Amino acid sequence: MNLVLVSSIGAIGMAMLAMFVRMKAAKKPASIKKIILPPVFMSSGALMYIVPQFRLTPLEIAEAVIVGMLFSILLIKTSAFEIKGNDIYLKRSKAFFIILVGLLVVRIILKAILSTTIDYGEVSGMFFLLAFSMIVPWRIAMYRDFKKLQIKLKNSKQPA
């Protein structure tokens, strides 16, 4: 079976998993650990660059990082927290799911196009870096917003 097709099916599965996890997460209070750990765990994927087949040129690195950071803007705009009682929750957003599916479609199309001109290993390396460059700024923004609400919550509990 074609590697691009297999990886695209994997990407669809991961997107469905992300949507499921996001829906469950919205039912429980958010925490700094839940915000920070996903990119930390994902960072182990960078070990792929040990294998020469996955290494990127400086231009490919720049392209992947820039596109990833641009995509992160959409995720940042659709992620917000709210205070419920004494806890901070991630707000549900229908736009998040639409954007996640849209990003997935764009990713699959780009992967199909790029895999015709760039070696599959390099394309895989680029898309890992793109995803990482999308998730890190998003999670940093979430962390910053969470900390602001945490301070607001703490200040509202203090007696006047």
Task: Describe, in short, the structure shown.
This protein has 160 residues and is mainly α. It has five helices and two strands; from the N terminus they run αααββαα.
Keywords:
2 strands; 5% strand
What does this structure look like?
By secondary structure, the protein is mostly helical. It is 71% helix and 5% strand. It contains five helices and two strands; from the N terminus they run αααββαα. The protein has a two-stranded antiparallel sheet with strand order 1-2. The longest helix has 38 residues, at 120-157. It starts with a helix and ends with a helix. The relative contact order is 0.18. The mean pLDDT is 87.
Write the layout of secondary structure elements.
Layout: H1 3-25, H2 32-42, H3 58-77, E1 81-84, E2 87-90, H4 94-114, H5 120-157
Antiparallel strand pairs: 1-2
Shape: elongated
Sheet with the most strands, sense and barrel status = 2 strands, antiparallel
**What are the segments in which pLDDT stays under 50 over at least 5 consecutive residues?**
none
| Secondary structure: helix percent | over 70%
Rg (C-alpha, Å):
18 Å
**Extended strand count:** 2
Give the terminus-to-terminus CA distance.
67 Å
Query: Structural class from helices and strands?
Result: mainly alpha
So how many helices? Answer: 5
How much beta, percentage-wise? 5-15%
Order of helix and strand elements from N to C terminus: HHHEEHH
Mean pLDDT: 87
In order across it, which strands form the biggest sheet?
Answer: 1-2
